[in-house]
């Protein structure tokens, strides 16, 4: 028998599995589990993030903003602050209403968060005293699943009214809710069906009827109820009795007797005009197709569909679209268009299919690379290992709870290059051993070859995992958003290692040609010293010529070090001189963007619609615009961005949005960000003509923020805060590269106060509440009762209200009669006096501190780089310029609010800066933790404190490739670039481990230290180059993605430069550090 070397864990595993019958079964199971995961894993465009917010609305009718803040908002914030897991609490105190927003920490499950919220609210119901005038708090929770995956806009070129469209939409809602996985189906737009009772003050007074009497008459007449039963005279049993009758039509309402005057009944039609139909519009929604030269604004409504948590967005959206198609010409009448204006399921499927295609191409390219380098059989082995690793990783990803989205798929594509490393190293070493010992049977070669690289391969795999896995603990929105990258990559690396030691040896034994059945007693050390031919010989000569000068001259080693340090400093300097711009994430190429418009406070709904339609008329002439939808006085279907910014609360008449949909990416040259920035100047000009403030809002590439640039203004008093915010906005407007400036300050809007003459009203026996209810009902509408027509999906109110024609000025309102205690009618004008003023402004707090906000963005194409960070730094000087006279220096805070806002005014910077800081802070910490873990792993392996420092020395060398690579391609250094940098730490250390381990192994076998150093680079160059090229090829397929190209650039250029340098620097550095010790040991050993 031949003496076999003692095998380690990897060698024993290879020996056990290379001929085991269970190995192919395990491979088949891994393949089937992967196919199962592909079929069942939900697909969506963005990762699922537990970001739960809840709005708590507390009505306080009649109270001004200050009273609402003091009596309701601040105490409510204190109560809500008891909840565990809260990130921030915000409040807005408006006249008559407190709006509180509870933002939970990212990752707190929605159900758990809401249980905590309701528990605290119910346990503290006594914090608002009874009789204060506040109404029951309303809780409106919001989360990622409230973002619609599908939106269908109903419109017609014919004269279809908004009410007709709304009726069709109401019928569609029921049908769409039947779609499996759908959650909420709702309609945006439409005036609502009402029975409008248009009041005529003169006719009311003439017939001796007032508004409260009409309400009571309608409520009393609209009643039906079971009364019991009597014995049936026609036979046995009981006869059920029901009393009363509901109002079922407008005629029933019009013919209702509401009083008696001069001995005759007074019918409702005699004192008011009763009309069935649409209510007075509180919002307008319209649709304009692209290319419409007239910019026609066709009345429209939009039906939106959300999905249940965990459901496949692609399946839900496709099923909903199919249901819409089935409803055409039935529920949706001919001539009515149903245009899909949002389909996140389709975009998710398109993105997933494209990325799966890239994954296949990347895998094929890596296999082709191995085939060219090692041979066809070796390529098949590596390909099989990669495919099994991918399928097993897909199953592990599904089991972990991830969905198939662009981040998880990018993680797999990015991982291709490192998942293949283990298989390449194992197969290449088997291939090399075959060439070195051609007469030895494969069954004996494989365990030895696997065992030789097993230790460093295990260590190298663990170092890559150690580098990547800490990124899974990044906090904030960015952590869970990017978590599929570290987790899927780490799972894949662990699985690839297992497959490399089990399935790969089995495939090698089956597929690789055996060199013969000669005696296996060849000595590996002698084989290494055998004459090298072909590529191996060329590499030996190359590295001998390249390394020996540095090994033999200390001066040249110092020159090499100086050159590397110089290159390192120049590379870092690229960011200093802004040749490489720092940015959180670049914009993706989306199919939509939005215009958010704010008219001056008090603007009429028609003015808002006119401004939006003027912008729309310009937009539809652009060849890239497919269509647009206008929303005046209401919000469009929200996006993830709108969810965080709370656009769903935009319901005032002076607020509006334009949702702009672009043609398919294949039919336009420019990306959506370029288009939006190109159109912005003209849109700003149109907005200025209408006195509007405009923000061009794009779908953010990552976690959204309130605005790219946010200044939170704190200070001792509200008036000073608002004044400072106003001065800041004025200073920012002078900056040529800043756009989209806005504040939370509200313009002065006129308001008429009807002050009640209390003494006169009390003398007449007219309560103040009756006066207030009469005025509110006449202007806003008083829903006195509800129609029971048996056909409507939603209740149809009978609404008492002054007609629109009478709501011009106060004359008709002041003529309304009210009934005194003696039965006489008194006009409202005798009970009130009119005072002119302005609408009370809202008051804001954040975490119990009063605050005002200033928002802005950076213009594209200006002198400031297209990154909000540089725009923010350019605005810092405005703080002191805008400081209020006599208040001293404005404080500046970057991380948190001022602890004492009462001493001086201060600004806390927020927006993209905050997310960037938190992300890079946590990624930097993860990088540091990764380096520590790598050091500990290498110490454990090499049992030395100095050798790990040598092995880790190439990590900074990645910067020499990464930063010039970004500069060369004109790309910003982003969060994904940082992920690439972190991954490079593990990848490059892998190469160092292979080199150092080889040197130690050959020295242990008796080779001269200097010769072992040269041989390490020559022998390990091929697997190092192969694994490096594989990682670069995998990264190449994500180079064209706007968001993840930073990751690709880091990997491609970082691996290219650092791999070349590693093959020189590590051998030279290891020689320089250990020269005296090892050469003296070898000398003493030779003497013995």
UniProtKB/TrEMBL annotation:
<feature type="transmembrane region" description="Helical">
    <location>
        <begin position="355"/>
        <end position="374"/>
    </location>
</feature>
<dbReference type="Pfam" id="PF00873">
    <property type="entry name" value="ACR_tran"/>
</dbReference>
<feature type="transmembrane region" description="Helical">
    <location>
        <begin position="448"/>
        <end position="473"/>
    </location>
</feature>
<feature type="transmembrane region" description="Helical">
    <location>
        <begin position="1051"/>
        <end position="1073"/>
    </location>
</feature>
<feature type="transmembrane region" description="Helical">
    <location>
        <begin position="407"/>
        <end position="427"/>
    </location>
</feature>
<dbReference type="InterPro" id="IPR001036">
    <property type="entry name" value="Acrflvin-R"/>
</dbReference>
<feature type="transmembrane region" description="Helical">
    <location>
        <begin position="485"/>
        <end position="509"/>
    </location>
</feature>
<feature type="transmembrane region" description="Helical">
    <location>
        <begin position="949"/>
        <end position="969"/>
    </location>
</feature>
<feature type="transmembrane region" description="Helical">
    <location>
        <begin position="21"/>
        <end position="40"/>
    </location>
</feature>
<feature type="transmembrane region" description="Helical">
    <location>
        <begin position="381"/>
        <end position="401"/>
    </location>
</feature>
<dbReference type="GO" id="GO:0042910">
    <property type="term" value="F:xenobiotic transmembrane transporter activity"/>
</dbReference>
<protein>
    <submittedName>
        <fullName>Efflux RND transporter permease subunit</fullName>
    </submittedName>
</protein>
<keyword id="KW-0472">Membrane</keyword>
<feature type="transmembrane region" description="Helical">
    <location>
        <begin position="1017"/>
        <end position="1039"/>
    </location>
</feature>
<dbReference type="InterPro" id="IPR027463">
    <property type="entry name" value="AcrB_DN_DC_subdom"/>
</dbReference>
<keyword id="KW-1133">Transmembrane helix</keyword>
<keyword id="KW-0812">Transmembrane</keyword>
<feature type="transmembrane region" description="Helical">
    <location>
        <begin position="975"/>
        <end position="996"/>
    </location>
</feature>
<feature type="transmembrane region" description="Helical">
    <location>
        <begin position="558"/>
        <end position="581"/>
    </location>
</feature>
<dbReference type="GO" id="GO:0005886">
    <property type="term" value="C:plasma membrane"/>
</dbReference>
<feature type="transmembrane region" description="Helical">
    <location>
        <begin position="924"/>
        <end position="942"/>
    </location>
</feature>
